[in-house]
# Entry
Amino acid sequence: MTVAFASIQRALALFAEALLGEPARFDVDETQSASGRRPLSTLGGATTVVLPPAIEGRDDDRRAYRHAVLHQTAYELFGTRAFDPGAFVRDHPDRPGLAETFAALEECRLDVLVARRFPGARADVAAAADSLPRPPAATAASVAHLVAQGGLHRWSVTEVAELALALCPAVAAVVPLDPSELDLESDPDRASSRVELETSGGGDDPPGTLDPLLYDLDGAPGDVDDIGSGTQADGAGAGLDLPSLAPRRGVAIERVDGLDARVRAGRSSRDVFTGRRSTLYDEWDYRAGRYLPAWCRVSERPLEGGDPDFVVEVRRRHAVLARQVRRQFRRIAADSFRRRHREPDGAELDLDAVIGSLVERRRGVVDDERLQIRRERAAREVAAAFLLDMSASTSTPVLDPEAPPLAPPAPVNPDEGYPALSWDLSEPPPVPSRTVLDVAKESLALMCDALSALGDEHALYGFSGSGRDDVEFYVAKDLHEAVSSRTWARLAAMQPRRYTRMGPAIRHATRRLQRHPARVRLLVVVSDGYPQDSDYGPDRTDKHYGIADTAKALAEAARVGVETFCITVDPAGNDYLRHMCPDERYLVIDDVHQLPGELAKLYRTLTLSRR
Amino acid sequence: MHDDGPEPEAPWYLPVGDEVATFEAAYAARLPVLLKGPTGCGKTRFVEHMAWRLRPGGHAGAAALTTVACHEDLTATDLVGRYLLVGNDTVWIDGPLTRAARRGSICYLDEVVEARKDTTVVIHSLTDHRRQLPIEKTGEVLEAHPGFLLVISYNPGYQSVLKDLKPSTRQRFVSIEFDYPAPAVEATIIAHEGGVETAMAEHLAEIGIRVRALREHGFEEGVSTRLLVYAAQLTARGIEARRACDAAIVRAVTDDVDVQQAVADIVDVVLP
# Structure
């Protein structure tokens, strides 16, 4: 039986997410083995699970896929990826030898850990034992003996690295160290690490037939503590202890100390990263006609440092419009009351219910006393999210209609010479104080004010970013959040950033809306140009890639019940919006100053027609 | 009102922080208590335990706790009481809140934001210094018994969206926040409540942690401690462990087939 990866992709992605606590990226690679083992030197960077497109010749291919995922998450769970094995072996004189020795030990360690931590996967680990990497001939016997000693589950990846370095003869030849620095007995953590090592092929296992499970499970000998007691292995004289490898181990410790620091640094930056809460989304590749699984990472970022009084100026600047919008929205609110019949409490009697009740009483039946009519405001059950493009192009200045007109040039009196210029020519001229983004932010502030009065749930989001791994998503106000000074401060803090990868931002906003139990869910995207990013598609000049992905994201939103609408202030917007948006679901605004008014009109139309 | 029967056992509860001391202090000052936390994390059991600890006079048998499971059709009338027609007569029947206020027991309104808005009005006067319950239909203003305490719970996870407590209500209560316990504590709870060995309880706690990582995917809160205990109880009664988890966890948390498969995979690799 053959199972194609695509058919079980989502369940596997969820399985990996449950194991890791966050989403993992999946890649398909025809050269990837079904065992899930990867060349350790290729690990590093973001968590990526690499799987073959199909696995053939197994009885239960789904289970083989599952184990491949489990094994690759073990690289994350047990520290291999954070250790960065590629960097570890990079500068070693015997790079292949060290890489192979390290891989042989580390893969054994991981198999033991997986089998112990996930006992239900023991059979899968055992089945994958044949695929364990073989150490080079020079260290094969020692590695085999170490594995046979067992206790690998107590070793950290850095200790395995130390050991691999100690076993690699090239190190001793290159850098001899003072053995006094390498007194293992003084190391409190590893005080008794007198590990028996075979110096030559004298072990019980022939090289290349490592099976750590034989030794580490079911009470087999080989606990590290037991080894620490100094017990000699059978076959006296065949082993030597680690202090005799002092010079090699000294280099190992030096190198590994450095790596440890790197590992720690990597973890802390990772913590900062995951602290932002990121989510992976598929991306539509129109050329290939398929989704690229878990292609983009959307990270939610804080908005800080904005001025909460920003809204005061907005209300002053748009006082007339704000009044109009509020009046319009109040009319919607007034229409929203409804009468609930047969209520236990209320302002008036429900005549039908009273008559029915009297009839029932004459018949001797006790009724339920729900005889009132209550007038209550019906929940409009509208949830709207406004998604604002914060790309660099939104820093484009706009002429401020309130700005005082330029003063006419002063008459020149040749006798007095030319008047002084109002600014130094060596400096750039003063830039207009408002940008496209400023006007968009003002529009959202007005909407937010009006919608709060109306009682509709609404959210204000922004997005930008650079590259598929760094799509930034900003939340100025979330759906369930009340408007406060923090809302205004966060909205004010929105600044032009980088690119416009619209697809993943729409998917993320859709996901947030989807979780909101409203009858009408609306997503309004406000932008100033077509979607683009540094790697939005294989060819940067291909504008259609981003447009196709955004169109797909909008269609996905529609499928899950989120209505979408795109507004752009880009005069050329018609050229691409008609390809990107469903019919009549977009608006091109010539003058950015029309945005506040248009947005309010649009909202009213869209939500009223669907009440 | 004391009962001569045997002393009932205390409802078992394993403290995870200082919640017991906080509740006792709140009770001593007769400050109403709000319990926040996800479903199945032990809020109701905690109240039962505290009602037992604080039972009037330290004796069993008194009506120490009145629990009301709130729902969207629950009105103030349902809490306070109503006239019922008996033949051609009308008879006043106290609601659970009125009963608790008269008798001096703890009244626990579980998932209070599910109830209709008018219920919050009647609890306001009971939760401040007045400790009164005006019963509009009888004209009575009931002074709450000195032993009375109002405890409410709500779940900020799935209830924070359209339903939320107004600040004017929320700020009348001392808040105690709950979450799913740490793995070791949760394993102890599962072992005790489910009647399974420690090793099995630890496996179930591990499943709980892993499945909660998927809470964004169609189920807001992951798997509750309650469901893990159910799985343990089924196992203790002879149901094969994977089958027990399938019934109590995999099928219970979601209807999404892919999520079910992922949860089943977690169960399969974690269990021996």
